[in-house]
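Reposting from the mailing list since nobody answered there.

I have sequence plus structure tokens for a pair of proteins and want to know whether others read the tokens the same way I do. The first protein:
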Amino acid sequence: MIKYLGSKRTLVPRIGQTVRGLPVASACDLFAGTTRVSQGLRRLGLHVVANDLASYSEAFGQAYVERSAQGRIPELLERLRAAQPPRGYVTETFCETARYFRPENGMRIDGIRAAIDKLDLDAVERGTLLTALLEAADRVDSTVGVQMAYLKEWAPRAWQPLELREPALCPGPPGQVTRLDANELAHGLDDIDLAYIDPPYNQHSYYSNYHAWETIVRGDAPEHYGTACKRLDCRTTKSRYNSRRESWSALTELIAALPTPWLIVSFSDEGFHDPLELRELLAERGHVGFAEVDSKRYVGAKIGIHNPRGEKVGTVGRLRNRELLFVVGPDRSAIESALA
């Protein structure tokens, strides 16, 4: 899986342990991102709905949540490996104007992406091939995990040749992928037992942080701005959850709209909201239990704060986060058992 700010890689085992203790057979991951949690829920045997507004998240969901057989993927990947590497938008924008990838790998990305559009594919095949391309690009990028800037000197991995690998099949029943506003989707989850909620809790926009992945998946050539060459629509694509003024009302509306009897809410102490206020909000839905998980902050925090010239100009306040995992439902004893 790609490097991703806010990834729940280290939290997935704790979430899995908790879900195993609850009487649930289906779940919706409302802000799925790279689908790490969705995959963990699928491995538990649940029917999973993976939802996110990002195009790249939809591709990951098709590869890891919907896909249930290898099918033609090995053959298709072999054909893509032979794609001619032209100098296209990715090379010009993300290798020459910006420096996310070495030009030779940018040309490979351009060639493979164009070749995908020429294949006769169903949605799952297409999403799986796009996932393979994103994961290959991530292995040779020159960032610290977000696409707001790039390293002053090429990262050692950036010199490696881009290599397509088949995304692993995720065990468990095949699920469903949606690309909808979570607050709108919430009203339609009457047949789902559990909602997993991990929205953005601060001002950092995932759309801006991973604009290159969005562009590669869409296959478009947007106007861009700034040193990071962000898509022009990053200026207008905003989430209420990234606004201190609007995020609490968005979350309140989401919690109220969900018909699912069980909720799991992941909350970082770097977020806008007071944990006690969040617990009071969740208590309106049923019994509430919680667990705390200590985790490292993303690698950029360790590197420190730098100006556009690459000079260190500030000190990061801390290197670790406290993640709170709230469990909400109708049965207090089940919650206590699940969190034990």
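The second protein, same order (residues first, tokens after):
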Amino acid sequence: MKKIYMLLVAGLLFGSTLKAQNVLLSEDFELQSFYNKFDSVDVLPGNVLDTMWYRMDADYIPDASTTGTRPDGYFAIQPFSPVDRYPTIYGGTPPDSNTVIAANSWNNFGDDPQGLESNWMVTCNVKLGTHDTLFWKSAPFQTPRYCDGYEVLLSTTDNNDFSFTHVLFTASEMTGTPGTDPDTTYTDFTFSPASGFIHGFDGTYIDPAGTTAPVSHHGRLYPFSVPLDTYGNKNVFIAFHHNSHDDNLISFDDVMIRGDASNPNAGIEENHNVLGVAVYPNPASDYVQVNYILTADADAVISVYDVTGKLVSSQTNGTQSQGRHFAHINTSDLAKGFYTVNVKTATASSNTKLIVR
């Protein structure tokens, strides 16, 4: 068995008694401590009750980038697109806590079969209910030139790599010789498999091509979802298998399995903060960043109230997709004191406290 590296502690399991659907597993790869404690094991446990995430570099092909310093297997990195990063606000520089996990496929083998990168990221075990859905986001560093591909696989037995026989999703990689025209023309490139999803092909979730060679789009985090009804009431593992030949980088974020309220395995603790509202910094002076999670596409209204209940700030970002989002509020004009930050959608409302100093 190939060398395996422990990736993450158990996914966050939390439930809700409100109308929002229950979350069976959620990971946004934000805590840097996850990436600083990789304990190696010879084989994956193969235990259906395993509560750990794992990563595996199954190819042992060294990085061939210009610096040659990219880690093997999956590693933490800043999102490729500025759209997916937390920007500098009001002259300040908050910590970039928007972390994704990525894998490298740049090597010296081209389309040679022996040059196939094989990087595995495997979730902890999840006990499904009858109507659950897998959500995640992915973005390639480049598209269409050197666009990376991957598979999302499922195992109903254990978390050994050969047990992932159920294919849930396939993203295509660029193969062959890159086209010579500007990289905005996808027809100048070959992708494999032909039936897979091609990042940026529909013109969405990409940054416009630049002017320096190679002229390529950068991918933005594209949200995906796959229903898991076929595997209802089973213990499952999910694997993100990065399997590209000499392309560049692929990244993932916001992996979540969400089930309906009838799922008895979603936990019994009531969580009134169903939108996961959090603010940073707190206390605040010049600005505050409001983080929140949408469990479905929705319009979110972010409001700030003072201690008397008076509305002092409000904004809406329009319809947003399921997943993690943030908003920025200027607090420099607010009086010092205590405030309530509220995020509200058509089906849920969550509060958190804020101190302005």
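Reply #1 (J.P.):
I read it the same way you do. The two ends are 56 Å apart (CA to CA).
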